[in-house]
Amino acid sequence: MILKTYRLKEYNFMLIIFTILLSVIGVFAISSAMGEAGTENVHKQIGGIIVGSVMMIVISLIDYHFILKFWIPIYIAMTVVLFMVMVGGYNANNAQRWLKIGFIRFQPSEMTKLMLILFFAAFIMKYREKISNFHLLLVCSGLFIVPFFLVYKQPDLSTSLVMIFIFSAIMFTSGIKKRIILVILLIMIPVGAALTGYILNPDNHALQDYQLNRINGFLYPEDYPEIAYQQNNSVTAIGSGMLEGKGYKNNEITSVKNSNFISEAETDFIFAVIGEEFGFRGASVTIILLFLISLSCLDVGIRASDVGGSIICAGMGTFIGMQGFMNIGVATFLLPNTGIPLPFVSYGLTSLVTLYCGLGVVLNVRLQVKHSVNPLDDFMLNYNGKGSY
To answer: Is residue 54 part of a domain?
Structure first.
């Protein structure tokens, strides 16, 4: 059945409230970052929240098992659209990441993260009895590498990294035996260290010149002041906000934002605007809401009725949590500069609507949870091979 009868008390209203609150913070931050010239974009963002909310509610009432039946078309559509971006995508800021159809421009790599989660949720449910089989692990890796490569070549390193975290969360949640996880870690740690050393070598061609410069700007900001310029200004803006901030849309001449020292203020560095205008309190509320949304997804995943539901929730929780961490990490100079939106906050309709749709599926998983005394104990029992994990 597409639609099922659900109990209203099982609906996760708190997750919706957290999401709406964070989205409202985003609207105020975008409005301040773009000023009067960005009024139209603010209206678009509000429209995106409304459309996304409606889609979230509708999707939450559709049995997620019905959605997962289309796992093959989902993978084909994801791959085809990403290939279309590579062949004839819209180019902006030295990256070819968008498709333009008529007056509509969207970023398929944002949709890819959700489609990847749904595909693997269905794929692993179908072959869950063989999930610890080495050949099946190779198949999963191969199926992941195709969209990963297409996104990486746009180039979109930040989204590629988020996809790796999502895939890792999916595979862990799938119920792979612990000894296999240990073997993978023992292999990946030295390989990762060697790969990092190779990437940082100026003679390699694994990264674009601007990507390598950003890494060097992070590691050696004194030697690359023009590269570290954006992040230094972002940290200055956040620090100047102190506890209570300088005020929403303030006119202070000492404002980093008002002096136009923050580029991409409505997207990549939206957190700097929040920190400067709303201070430590506003920044803390933003981080807490992101944490609560991500944690709520993981909580639902622990109690999901099957491994498919667990993968969906683990994937979405990782998607939101890691992307939020990376965006804030860049804004606070904890990570190298890489363009990635802050979930539900940054301007961008593709990202916003995709996240709302993903939470709609999580809400449906919540409506079909198992009832156990201790969700964590129930998860560990199943993970150890006595249940469906």
So the answer is: yes
| Runs of H (alpha helix) within the chain | 13-34, 39-60, 64-68, 71-88, 108-126, 134-152, 157-173, 178-200, 209-219, 225-240, 270-302, 307-331, 349-367, 375-381
d(CA 198, CA 162): 21
Residue 259: domain span: 8-386
Start-to-end CA span in the chain (Å): 24
Q: How far is the C-alpha of 349 from the C-alpha of 35, rounded, in Å?
A: 19
CB 300 within 8 A of CB 12: yes
CB 64 within 8 A of CB 308: yes
| pLDDT one digit per residue (tens) for the chain, 389 residues | 576 677 778 889 999 999 999 999 999 999 999 888 788 999 999 999 999 999 999 999 999 999 999 999 999 999 999 999 888 777 776 677 888 877 778 889 999 999 999 999 999 999 888 877 788 888 999 999 999 999 988 888 889 999 999 999 999 898 887 777 787 777 777 877 776 666 666 666 666 677 777 887 888 888 888 888 889 999 999 999 999 889 888 888 778 887 778 888 899 999 999 999 999 999 999 999 999 999 999 999 999 989 999 999 999 999 999 999 999 999 999 999 888 999 999 999 999 999 999 999 999 999 998 764 444 444 444 545 444 43
Asked if omega into 155 is within 30° of 0 (cis), the reply is yes
In which residue are the tokens 């949590």 written?
321
Helix (H, G, I), strand (E, B) or coil at 56: helix
Residue 2 within any structural domain of the chain: no
95, 338 Cβ separation under 8 angstroms: no
Report residue 315 as tokens: 């994937």
Helix (H, G, I), strand (E, B) or coil at 85: helix
With beta carbons less than 8 A apart as the criterion, state whether 271 and 283 touch: yes
Residues in the chain: 389
- The tally of domains found in the chain comes to 1
- Is residue 3 a part of any domain in this protein? no
Give yes or no for a contact between 363 and 15, defined as CB atoms under 8 angstroms apart: yes
